[in-house]
Every structure is written in C-alpha cells, then in structure tokens.
Design brief:
Layout lengths: L19 H44 L13 H12 L9 H13 L5 E5 L5 H7 L4 E6 L2 H10 L4 E4 L9 H9 L24 H5 L4 E4 L13 H12 L11 E7 L4 H12 L3 E5 L2 E7 L37
Parallel strand pairs: 1-2, 1-4, 2-3, 4-5
Antiparallel strand pairs: 5-7, 6-7
Helix pairs in contact: 2-4, 8-9
Organism: Brassica carinata
Pfam families: IRX15_IRX15L_GXM
Protein name: Polysaccharide biosynthesis domain-containing protein
C-alpha cells in the first residue's frame, strides 16, 4: 500500500464573545431590516389596495353610464340646489298645498322632456318648477328686479326677467270695460307690437315666439289697491295661448294655464273673462286650471269666450276702489 506522507493539520480558534457594543449594532441592524420589511409590505399592500379600488371604480363608472338609471348617479346642480333650498327653509316651506303642487307637476311632466313653461312670479316654489322641468325650458317673470338678479346669481343658468307693470288693482273694474272697446286688445295678436294696456309687451322677443305648453300665474302682488295685480299676466297668457300657430294640424294646440289664488275675486273674474269659464277643467284648493285652445286662422274681434255676458257685469273691488289712472288715456 501506498502511504500518505502528508499530515493534515486541524487548527482550533478560540471564539471571542461579542462585546456589548457589537451586540447593539447587530440589534439595530435587525431592527432596521424589520422596519424596511414592514414598510415594504405596507406600501405593497397600499398599492394593491389602490389598484383594486381603481378597478372597482372603473367598473362602477362603466355600469353607471348615462344610459343607466341607477339611483347612485350624481344629482344635477338644479336638483341639488332645490333639495338644499327646501330642506334648509323653515316651515311653512311653501305657499301652495301638496295637492296644488301635484296638479301643476303632473301636467308639466305630461308634456314630455321638451316642455316650455312660463312662470309669472318668483316664489318659494321657483326652484321646484325648474327642477320638475329640468330638460325643458322654464322662464320666470317678476316685478322685482332685485329679486330677479339675486335669483339668477344664486342659480346659474336660470332664465328670469323683470317687468314693470303699469296696472293697479284699483283699476281692475275700469280695465274690464276698457279692453272691450280697443281693437289692440284682441285675443289673437303679437303682443310685442301691442298697445293694449292689459298686455305685457316689454319682455324679450322670444317670449312671444315660443309656443308655451304650460303657464303658471303666481304673481305679481295683488293684495292691495296699489299693487300691480294679476290682470296683465292673465290677459297676456290668454293671448299667448290663443295666438299659437296650429299650422296645418286638424287638432288645435292647447296651453295649460294655472292661476294661483283663484279664490280671490280679481283672479277669478279676470280668469273667467279671458281664460274663459268653459275652459276651466278643475279647481284644486286655490288653484284654477284652464286649458286654452289656439284660434286657428286668427279670431277677429275682442271676444275671448263663447259666452261672457255673465262676466261683463259691473265689477268692483272691496279694496282701493276703481281708480281711472291711465285707463282712459290714448
């Protein structure tokens, strides 16, 4: 056998224990390593959570497309403004009853998404009318220029116009006799060029060109002799409704006209004189609802109704008398 002449030498080294200083350094290193691992895990979790949330949000946006009618869709600004307005208002929240509000809302909704709504008078319900007719066109007319300006400022995109009324409640009786003798007060005409004292002729041109589907008369003031009264809005509404262009259609176009506070004598008498008693379809609380048909081909003469003998009787008010201010002037 061949002998191995090399000798293997095994050395044993004495291991010196770690000092307290080196132990602290090692512990610190381990602590930093643990912190690094924690933060790495934490941010990895956050990233995963964000990615997951983004995926859910993207899926939600896809499912809540404009064609979807999901109740979680964002509210439009007019609807949101109306909700805030009514929930923050102290009681009573409205000058109309629930049945009166429902009657108007039902008719506006029945006209479809392109309803043309004309409202005389700014009131607590104004934002409601705008919201109910959100996809249609709603125009407000009021006697108070400051109120109109503030309403426009608080509700961007709203259409509101101020008008100066030349009539007074105290003139109501004389004005009824006046219009019968004036050809400029005929039922079918363009009020933009009218000199009739009961007509409103200083609104923007488009007001006289639009075929209004619904007209609400809730202004101006009419509780005192020197108040403007609602004679002019009622007369103007009747002319706008009767002057609609029916074209070649066999069926006449109609306009739903609502008169609020119909229980007051002035509103009732003027409504029956110009909107006509035969056109009164319902009375809901203090709200009169008329459906007025257009006069095809234009109606000659000053007669608004088929039978107005009852309404032609002398008319006086308990307040303010029958002043003749400006009524007999040419």
């Amino acid at each position: 056998m061949k002998n191995n002449a090399n000798t293997n030498l095994i050395l044993f080294h004495h291991h010196t224990p770690l000092t307290s200083k080196s132990a602290s350094a090692a512990a610190a290193a381990n602590h930093h390593r643990l912190l690094f691992i924690f933060f790495l895990s934490f941010f990895t979790f956050l990233f995963s959570l964000t990615l997951f949330s983004s995926s859910l949000h993207s899926a939600a946006r896809t499912s809540h497309s404009p064609s979807s009618s999901s109740p979680s869709s964002p509210l439009s600004p007019p609807i949101l403004a109306a909700l805030l307005h009514y929930t923050s208002s102290p009681p009573p929240n409205t000058s109309m009853s629930f049945s009166e509000l429902s009657a108007i809302t039902t008719v506006v909704n029945s006209k479809g998404p392109t309803c043309n709504l004309l409202v005389f008078g700014l009131s607590h319900e104004s934002l409601l009318w705008r919201s109910v007719n959100l996809k249609g066109r709603t125009v407000f007319v009021d006697e108070n220029s400051y109120a109109v300006s503030k309403f426009e400022q608080n509700n961007p995109g709203v259409e509101a116009y101020d008008v100066v009324y030349s009539t007074r409640v105290s003139q109501a009786g004389k004005l009824l006799g006046y219009y019968k003798t004036r050809p400029e007060c005929r039922p079918v005409q363009n009020l933009l060029f009218s000199d009739c004292k009961l007509g409103i002729n200083d609104l923007p041109n488009f007001v006289y060109e639009i075929d209004w589907d619904v007209i609400l008369i809730d202004g101006p003031r009419g509780y005192a002799g020197d108040s403007p009264g609602r004679m002019a809005p009622i007369f103007t509404s009747a002319v706008l409704a009767k002057s609609k262009d029916s074209g070649e259609k066999k069926e006449k176009k109609t306009t739903d006209v609502f008169v609020h506070e119909f229980g007051r004598r002035l509103e009732r008498v003027y409504s029956e004189e110009f909107l006509c008693e035969e056109n009164l379809v319902e009375v809901v609380g203090g709200l009169g609802h008329f459906v007025v048909a257009a006069e095809k081909g234009g109606k000659q003469g000053n007669g608004f109704c088929r039978n107005s003998t009852k309404l032609s009787e002398p008319f006086t008010l308990d307040i303010g008398g029958d002043a003749e201010v400006g009524v007999d002037d040419d």
